[in-house]
Amino acid sequence: MRFNNVVFEAAYGTAAQLPVSDLPEIVFSGRSNVGKSSLINKLFNRKALAKVSSTPGKTATVNFYRAGDVRIVDLPGYGYAKVSGSEQKRWADLMDGYFAGNRRICLVVQLIDMRHPPTRLDNQMLEFLCSCGYNFIIALTKCDKLNQTQTRQRLQALENELDLLPQMPVCIPVSAVKGEGIIQLQEQISFFVENGGM
Questions:
Q1: Fewer Cβ within 10 Å of end Cβ, the chain: N or C?
Q2: Does residue 29 sit within a domain?
Q3: Which residues have C-beta within 8 Å of that of residue 131, sequence separation ≥ 6?
Q4: Which of 50, 59, 99 is nearest to 77 (CA)?
């Protein structure tokens, strides 16, 4: 898969607008302000491919990008409490509509802030991915904020924090600032694309 040849295609704010899935899709999911846009930009070596904001909940649409014969899908961040109830429902309906749409999902990259244990909503998302049989890996964002000892401690703690899952998923510490883990993440994505999501 070529990571230097990607373009923005479209953004959709309701499930009814979502297009038919005609290409393999790599999906990025995570709570608000976990660093999805920054990671996508770093992964594809583009400074402003995905719009970055310091305001949580800024990505309120499903954003589609085209990378050759693959689509990259940036889902709205979940869990930001300061939006209205109607907006939260729209986001939930959008997420439900996306996953219920018989899509060609190769891999879900689930983002979790490495500095903290997975939130309740993170765990719900992981359980959902397992129950539906999706391939997924975990990108542990903001690893540059931890020293080596803290990183080791968090990785050890995650084994207990994720024991609700049938098996321990691949977890990659990543930094959109320093580039740590980016090559490993690219390799994982390429593997699932080349093997048809197996």
A1: C
A2: yes
A3: none
A4: 59
Please give the tally of structural domains in the chain. Answer: 1
Partnered with residue 139 across adjacent β-strands are: 111, 172
The span from the CA of 184 to the CA of 163, in Å, is: 24
Q: On the CB side of 11, how many CA atoms lie within 13 Å of its CA?
A: 13
Rounded-to-integer distance, Cα 145 and Cα 26, Å: 26
Q: Give domain status of residue 2, yes or no.
A: no
Q: Closest Cα partner for 37 from 65, 79, 68?
A: 65
Residue 134 in tokens: 């999706």
Flag whether pLDDT at 147 surpasses 70. yes
The CATH number that applies at residue 118 is 3.40.50.300
pLDDT one-digit tens code per residue, 27-82: 999 998 898 988 999 998 877 676 654 444 455 789 999 999 999 999 988 865 55
Expressed as residue numbers, the domain containing 171 is: 7-194
Q: Are 196 and 137 in contact (CB under 8 A)?
A: no
CA-CA-CA-CA torsion for 3, 181, 107, 187, nearest 10 degrees? 60
Nearest Cα residue to 59 out of 83, 24, 86: 83
Nearest alpha-carbon partner for 65 in 32, 38, 28 = 28
**By C-alpha distance, which of 96, 105, 101 is closest to 28?**
105
Whether residue 118 contacts residue 162, with contact meaning beta carbons closer than 8 Å, is answered with yes
